[in-house]
Amino acid sequence: MKKRKLITLTTLILTVIIFNTLSFSTPAAGSDELKRELLEEIISVDKPELFDDYGELYLAKAKTQAVIQGMEGKDVTWGTKEWVDILLGIIDDFEGIAYLSKSSVPSDHIEAIETAERINMSINALSGYIAAEDNEIPMLSEHALERFYRGEGEFFETLSRNEKETKLKIEYENISSFSYKKGGIYTLSDASRMEFASRRDEWIYTRDTERASEFIDEASSHLYNAKNPPSGFFGDLHAFMDILKARDSFETAKKIYEKHEDKELEKVEGFENEIKSVYHRLMLDTLKIVAIYLLILSFFTVILWMDFKRWGEELDDTRLGEELIV
């Protein structure tokens, strides 16, 4: 009895599996109703500003409409709806990036490029449908996307030329190079040119900032010595010489950071203030030492002058005595 129930249950499970397999492997039948729905969706897409900027998209939409109109209702299946929906999604995404690409804010353009990558994936998916591929609908979308990338390449190239902050300039050059590469064969040379510019500027920036970092380290070392001078009368003088070296090293580093308008300069402002504070303190201490030294020197000078004066007077008296004797 148990064996018979097990066989019956197994047969039922196999029947369900076979039924499901056949259901998924058999394409859904098309209908006139689905055809009407798709045509209504396509016709309702009215984006004159976008289509003025990207005529390829309008042509892709028109071709899609013509393809659906020319199909029998039974041939318009859910598979047809899939690729039509992909195209309509591409057009919607394009409207977003077209709007962002007209902005003067770099972050908007970066967002547009990120969205463009999603469009590129949609175009690849669209190429997998024979009806769309045969009517060159993915190719038209791709041409529109390449033109968008070429515009972004030009935007970021112009931006890099006017940017004073080297780190940001390099970033813009890289984005420009990437966009030109995506722009098709017509802008490959521009992509190489911008890639070369970014590598050159990055090499110079790295070299200069490494030197600036070394000067900051030197300034830090001299500042430490200035704050911890050797004991003795001339300790403050040694400290003053160290603070001068610290100031010179920092000024050299500062000029390098200013050349690249590097944000690292903001991080060392406190360090600069500390150098100035120690410098002013040691300047006063040094002036006091010099004043004391000059006072002592003046004291000994007066004593020597008095000795010389007395010696001169005695010498005159001696000469006068000799003259009287003679």
Find the count of extended strands (DSSP E, 2+ residues).
0
Helix content: over 70%
Overall pLDDT score: 85
Topology as a string of helices (H) and strands (E): HHHHHHHHHHHHH
Rg from alpha-carbon coordinates: 43 Å
Strand content range = under 5%
- The helix/strand class is mainly alpha
How far apart are the termini? 169 Å
The helix count comes to: 13
Main β sheet profile: none
Spans of at least 5 consecutive residues with low confidence: 1-27
Taken from the alpha-carbon principal axes, the silhouette is rod-shaped
What attributes characterize this protein structure?
0% strand, 326 residues
Structure characterization notes:
- The protein is mostly helical.
- Helices cover 85% and strands 0% of the residues.
- It contains 13 helices and no strands.
- It has helices at 2-25, 32-44, 48-53, 55-69, 78-100, 106-126, 130-134, 137-162, 166-182, 188-227, 235-260, 264-267, 269-325.
- Helix 2 packs antiparallel against helix 4 (55-69).
- The longest helix is centred in the C-terminal third of the chain and has 57 residues, at 269-325.
- The protein is rod-shaped.
- It starts with a helix and ends with a helix.
- Mean pLDDT is 85; it is low at 1-27.
Write a compact overview of the structure shown.
By secondary structure, this protein is mostly helical.
Protein topology:
Layout: H1 2-25, H2 32-44, H3 48-53, H4 55-69, H5 78-100, H6 106-126, H7 130-134, H8 137-162, H9 166-182, H10 188-227, H11 235-260, H12 264-267, H13 269-325
Helix pairs in contact: 2-4, 4-5, 4-8, 5-6, 5-8, 6-8, 8-9, 9-10, 10-11, 10-13, 11-13
